[in-house]
Amino acid sequence: MNLPSADQSAPTSTSAHTATAAHAPVPVGRSRTGGPLGPVGLVLAGGISVQFGGALAVTLMPRVGALGVVTLRLLVAAVVMLVVCRPRVRGHSRTDWGTVIAFGATMAAMNGLFYQAVARIPLGPAVTLEVLGPLALSVLASRRAVNLVWAGLALGGVFLLSGGGFGDLDPVGVGFALGAGAMWATYIVFSARTGRRFPQADGLALAMVVAAVLFLPLGIVDAGARLLDPVTIALGAAVAVLSSVLPYTLELLALRRLPASTFAILMSLEPGIAATAGFLVLGQALSATEALAIALVIAASMGAVRTQVGRKGKETQAA
Q: Of 89-103, 113-127, 205-219, 294-308, where does mean pLDDT reach its minimum?
């Protein structure tokens, strides 16, 4: 699951996992010299990195458990973000710190719930259920009748995925995935607020530290001394790089030349990428019904983004 950047200024359907999922600063415009193929490739590479990082995290869970994996991911990502961003810690108001603490707490909850989900249900369905949170936020923000179509498509996908009652999926895992989706939507809201209060990615770096500190006691209780195993640390660092550091960097580069609307639509493909990663890395094959369910949710996410972007375009022209 990707982690959207703290510089977001408006909610989209997916990012932002993060993911964050998902996920990055607002672009300054399309490059005059670069075509769309380069930045699109960077976004897709970021999405692939996120989901294969998630698959690697599943293989690490027998060593330290879901909470241990989240702890390692957040700690390593926080250290990297601090080194790269070197955020300023002085000169911020109480409201600024309250916002970044809430952002970090949401980030911790989002990651914790998601990894609890993938410990119980396949990666593809988990991401599909999780993306319903940002999708719901996008539909509610748009307030257009056509979004009932996208909501219906998404609900149809969830119904197919559930087999009429989630008989083939662990209901606890389903609950965790839906909870992660709610936290992802909340993450997007606080991401935008943090981006308005902190320059560049400073707010994201500070929020990552808050998330790591908040989650550390849970990881210690759950995994204890196993967190200090060198192989476990190395694998945890790989998960952090694949799921947070690398995608964030790729998306940051892409959004210098790629419109945010196009980026959001590309991020709608994450459930499909997750299903592919689950199959290749974990051997989690999907039935035809599950594949159709994921396709419906992807279509609903893409439709909701396009509807919202189209409305904004008309409002801009009218103004």
A: 294-308
Single-letter code of the amino acid located at 311: R
pLDDT-derived band of residue 268, with 50, 70 and 90 as boundaries?
A: low
Per-residue pLDDT band at 9 (split at 50, 70, 90)? very low
pLDDT tens string 133-184: 877 776 676 666 676 777 777 777 777 766 655 557 888 998 999 999 999 8
Query: What is this structure's pTM?
Result: 0.73
Nearest to 117 by CA among 106, 128, 107: 128
Residue 18 dihedral angles phi and psi, to the nearest 5°: 30, 100
For residue 8, is pLDDT > 60? no
List CB contacts of 138: < 8 A, sequence separation 6 or more. Answer: 11, 12, 13, 147, 301, 304, 305, 308
Backbone dihedral angles phi then psi of residue 20, each to the nearest 5 degrees: -15, -125
Q: Quote the DSSP letter at residue 10.
A: S
Number of helices (H) and strands (E) in the chain: give both, helices first.
12, 0
Between the CA of residue 235 and those of 37, 55, 111, 240, 316, what are the distances in Å?
A: 32, 12, 17, 9, 47
Reported residue count of the chain is 319
Q: How many CB atoms lie within 10 A of CB 295?
A: 17
CB 209 within 8 A of CB 78: yes
Grouping H, G, I as helix, E, B as strand and the rest as coil, residue 20 is strand
Tokens representing residue 179 in the block: 């909870």
Of 61, 47, 56, 46, the C-alpha closest to 112 is 61
Q: Are 103 and 81 in contact (CB under 8 A)?
A: no
Distance CA 46, CA 104 (A): 22
